[in-house]
Amino acid sequence: MVRQAEAKTRARKVESEARQAAEHFRAAEKRSREALERMRAARPACARALEQADADELLLKDLVRKLAQFKSSLASDADAEQLVATTEAEIARTRAEAKAELEAAGKDLDEARRDLRTAVDAYRQIRRELERLTPELVEQFADEDRLLWDAESHFPGGQLQLLAHEVEAGMHAFGHLAKLEQYARLKVWIGRFRYHQAGPDRDGEGSEEVQTLAHKVFHQLKFLSRQHEPGYIEAFRQDFSTDWAAYVAEAQDQLVQAIESQRRARAEAEARRAGGSNGDGRHDEADGEEQAG
Hints:
Elements: H1 2-69, H2 78-133, H3 142-152, H4 158-174, H5 179-198, H6 208-228, H7 244-292
Helix pairs in contact: 1-2, 3-4, 4-5, 4-6, 5-6, 5-7
């Protein structure tokens, strides 16, 4: 009884901690997303401003050379010198503002990413404990689980690295899953892979290391499909295209339903076994009473 009470107390504490971690995670993801959007807007705008400053500087130098050639014929060069000084100051200001904006956006993004990584790690840790202690509550955190995938897009190559980790960790146990769960889980994984392929290029995602990782993940998924044959999944066809975000969301819903179905089936089987054991005990007791009589 004491152990049961302690377990229930710990479960309630973990549930509370999970909700707090989920809230912190959502806030950190929002801040990181906004910082990433700021950087994506600032980078091309600042690049254009710097290019324009370089072009203006070349024009100014050409103008200064021409003024020097005709300086002797000018009645007064004060106005020309003032114009040159003003233009030089404007070019310097444009450069300084563009560099400052890039630096500020980069600093904000780095800080937001650090906070997000901390929040993600904390949520994952408490989420694992929640699943161990109170698996029936896991479905309540489905939105945060989906957000984990989106959050990894804030890091260079993050989504692919997360997928690679999930596939690697799940390969050994894949054969022990029910067919419906195999099908849904594989559909989620290949959908995420195709989403990564179809997504816009991000920092570092065109590197040789990322391409090698993508090749490895795809072949692991093909191996699981051929080895276990959970069912036909059209996303393995390279000529198949769709809204991959919606495809993954649908597959995740199927996975949640498959896991819940298996959980209910196990609970019902355990209840039947427990009922059968109690019934056998009652019969044995009744037989004993009859023999005694």
